[in-house]
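lol forgot to send this yesterday, sorry. struct tokens for the thing we talked abt
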């Protein structure tokens, strides 16, 4: 059974940093696109970052939402089957439940296109 388990969330102040982890089990995700999404109360789930195969060109690419570009970094350790989200210079508007997701295809920003999801980890940024 495939499982994605997030960890690393918490309560921090604006300007602080956090690193989220997503440990995958049940299969090897080295060829999968791994992504982070987030969902704030009353809002739709939104794309944050992803690392995976790009479209027509066969290389690994990294993508970010404009709102986090330059502050967040996604990385993956294929040996550990783990993906990370390093979040720096956090802002109150980054407050949300953060989800790890995986799909067996190229990077897309649509939540419904991802096959596997973690349970989420809460990130709260106080001003």
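and heres what i got for the seq, position by position
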């Amino acid at each position: 059974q495939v499982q994605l388990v997030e960890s690393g969330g918490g309560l921090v102040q604006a300007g602080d940093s956090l690193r989220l982890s997503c440990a995958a089990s049940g299969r090897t995700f080295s060829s999968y696109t791994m992504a982070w999404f987030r969902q704030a109360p009353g809002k739709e789930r939104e794309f944050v970052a992803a690392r995976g195969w790009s479209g027509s060109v066969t290389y690994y690419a990294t993508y970010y939402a404009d709102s986090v570009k330059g502050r967040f970094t996604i990385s993956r350790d294929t040996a550990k089957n783990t993906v990370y989200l390093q979040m720096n210079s956090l802002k109150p508007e980054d407050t949300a439940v953060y989800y790890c997701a995986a799909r067996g295809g190229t990077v897309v920003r649509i939540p419904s296109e991802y096959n596997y999801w973690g349970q989420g980890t809460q990130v709260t940024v106080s001003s």
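The first strand starts at residue 3 and ends at 7. anyway ping me if u want another try
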